Amino acid sequence: MKRIFLIGYMGSGKTSIGKHLASRMGLSFVDLDVYIEQRYHKTVRELFAERGEESFRRIEQKMLHEVAGFEDTLISTGGGSPCFFDNIAFMKKTGETVYLKVSVDTLAKRLDAGKRTRPVLQNKSGEALRLFIDENLQKREPYYTQASIIFDTEKMTTESDLQAITDALEHILKKL
Ligand code: S3P
């Protein structure tokens, strides 16, 4: 039985890498945000707007516990998931944890395009966005770096980069 949690900042590649890796390893794939949206019939953005972040974090924890009951599954978590409650300890106890690590500058570039769907980044762009990511990542790294595997996903522009990352991670995870 295998259960893998991908963790890391927004834009670190959790979903793209997760989908590839899961199919390569013959595991089911679950994106925690998508799972939450299906269970609550609301988007993450709506949940943030209607109930506030605190309530979203409680829902997120509850859903994390639900998906952690699935076997032979790779779970791509939300950027904040490991940083609230005892979530990182819980993930480490129930599966393998992989932190996809990317620099602030690269995250800022990737997220400038995708910030609209991400309530945490709303209304921030350019230098303000970079500064926010820098500060936020410093707060979150103590949680992320507790993962049992830390993997650099800085270079992920082409399809062959994605293949190479997937190959390397598959190799590491198969040996465990
Ligand atoms: C969040 C990241 C998002 C989502 C929510 C909050 C965060 O997931 O869970 O918007 O606090 O970093 P992704 O990392 O998949 O974008």
Description:
The chain has 176 residues and is an alpha/beta fold. It is 56% helix and 13% strand. It contains 8 helices and 5 strands. Strands 2-3-1-4-5 form a 5-stranded parallel β-sheet, sandwiched between helices. The longest helix has 19 residues, at 126-144. The protein is globular and about 40 Å long. The N and C termini lie close together (12 Å). The chain binds shikimate-3-phosphate.
Concise summary:
The protein is 56% helix and 13% strand. The protein is an alpha/beta fold.
Bin the strand percentage. 5-15%
The ligands found in this model are: shikimate-3-phosphate
Indicate the mean pLDDT: 96
Order of strands across the biggest sheet? 2-3-1-4-5
Basic shape: globular
Helix content: 55-70%
Number of distinct beta strands: 5
Order of helices and strands: EHEHHHEHEHHEH
| Termini Cα gap | 12 Å
Count of individual helical segments: 8
Return residue spans where pLDDT drops below 50 for at least 5 consecutive residues: none
Largest sheet report: 5 strands, parallel
Query: Which structural category do the helix and sheet elements fall into?
Result: alpha/beta
- Radius of gyration of CA atoms, rounded to a whole number: 15 Å
List keywords for this structure.
alpha/beta; 13% strand; binds shikimate-3-phosphate; 5-stranded parallel beta sheet; 176 residues
